[in-house]
Design brief:
Length: about 400
């Protein structure tokens, strides 16, 4: 393997975002051979569960001089997922941003470790075709402007899964995949995503045995389940009256929603780099929280505030999808969103049944909904005769337009 002799890429120590999968396992060894450097492997625990088994030992065996495995589940949900949910952010109407929202936290901690280790550079395993390279590197540069970044997929000649597997075999690196693996998977507490392989044909239905968290709606219980979620200032704090930490609450909703087949999405999305990409996602807890949050906002947020906020949500979702979590525009917009959540406190009841989560009730001590005014029965505080003037004023421009048309004809 040839050495890279460019002066600006001479490094002594690299912090690698490491998962233990095929790509980053090969990258770890490749960095050592290519740069003749020390590699510190860093793995962020965002809820991968069994995927983390043996990661430390594998990294050390592959050549890492040190391994960090940081449990970031609570800050991930509290400081990244919950702010995103307060905004009701959805990319292109269907993607709940489970992979996108994880990358800035992973990259932030990676920079912290690089500073702590006095490392020269950071490296990641994102490909040159995807969004993750942008998300990682925008965060790197936002937090450490002079950082050196190594992105092997943009420079090496190992440009296929087969070549990676052959390289791993040559260097005695155990890998959990074969050349026949039908798709790739990325998992955290908020979602599981599936891409590549057989899923690259948008006409092909995902394999029935692919899904991990969610039952198929056909196999879900025949009896509906009712679920209550409590909110304080836009954040969920309890499920069925039981207070839970952010990470535990999300895990519980994943379990409940998944059992009822809730949270599957099959999406063809537009990547930031310009191409279309097909992804299949499981986001059971996130789907429930989106439905519940919207329901509570409907009785606690002023109409014009909600319309203004909703008009900005597509832009906010793009910021997350593209990787601009640490950009000033996202931070300013987050302040506005959070201000709009001041009164989003109360309880929502959902009905879960065969893949669907419908709202069965919502209540709040600070509700703006007044049944005395909204009722079709006789009520105080609203004079129905006032509507005539309201309608005539709003119809004025329509009347004038039509009168002018009639005069011209």
């Amino acid at each position: 393997m040839p050495k890279i002799d460019r002066e600006d890429m001479q490094v002594n120590k690299v912090v690698l975002a490491y998962s233990g999968g095929l790509d980053t396992s090969v990258i770890l060894r490749w960095l050592i051979e290519t740069y003749d450097c020390e590699v510190v492997a860093y793995c962020a625990d965002l809820g991968q569960e069994e995927e983390l088994e043996g990661v430390r030992e594998k990294a050390l065996k592959t050549g890492a001089t040190k391994v960090y495995i940081d449990d970031l589940r609570e800050p991930f949900v509290k400081d990244y997922v919950f702010p995103m949910l307060r905004a009701n952010a959805v990319y292109e109407g269907s993607y709940l941003l489970g992979t996108s929202i994880a990358r800035p936290l992973i990259a932030k901690r990676q920079i912290e470790i690089a500073l702590q280790e006095n490392a020269d550079a950071v490296a990641h395993g994102a490909t040159g075709k995807g969004n993750d390279q942008v998300r990682f590197e925008l965060t790197y540069y936002a937090l450490k402007p002079d950082v050196k970044v190594i992105a092997p997929w943009r420079t090496w000649d190992l440009d296929s899964r087969g070549k990676l597997i052959d390289y791993a075999a040559k260097h005695g690196i155990p890998v959990p995949v074969t050349k026949a693996k039908p798709y790739s998977m990325d998992r955290n507490l908020f979602h599981i995503s599936y891409e590549g392989g057989i899923l690259e044909d948008p006409w092909s239905e995902p394999p029935a045995d692919m899904f991990v968290w969610t039952k198929s709606p056909e196999q879900a219980p025949d009896k509906p389940q009712y679920l209550e979620i409590d909110y304080v200032k836009g954040d969920p704090v309890a499920v069925d009256g039981k207070k839970l930490s952010p990470a535990k609450l999300l895990a519980e909703l994943n379990r409940i929603g998944g059992a009822h087949g809730i949270g599957r999405a099959d999406v063809v999305e537009n990547r930031y780099v310009g191409m279309k990409s097909r992804g299949v996602y499981e986001t059971p807890g996130g789907t429930l929280l989106h439905a519940a949050h919207r329901a509570l906002e409907s009785i606690t947020v002023d109409r014009e505030v909600m319309r203004l906020r909703d008009s900005l949500v597509p832009r906010y979702a793009e910021m997350i999808y593209y990787g601009y979590w640490f950009a000033p525009e996202r931070e300013v917009l987050q302040q506005m969103i959070d201000a709009a959540q001041a009164n989003v406190t109360g309880r929502v009841r959902l009905k879960l049944y065969k893949g669907a989560a419908s709202v069965a009730g919502r209540k709040s001590e600070v509700s703006l909904y007044d049944p005395g005014i909204a009722t079709f029965e006789e009520g105080a505080g609203y004079n129905q005769a006032d509507a005539e003037g309201f309608i005539r004023l709003n119809a004025l421009r329509l009347r004038l337009r039509r009168l002018k048309q009639l005069k011209e004809n």
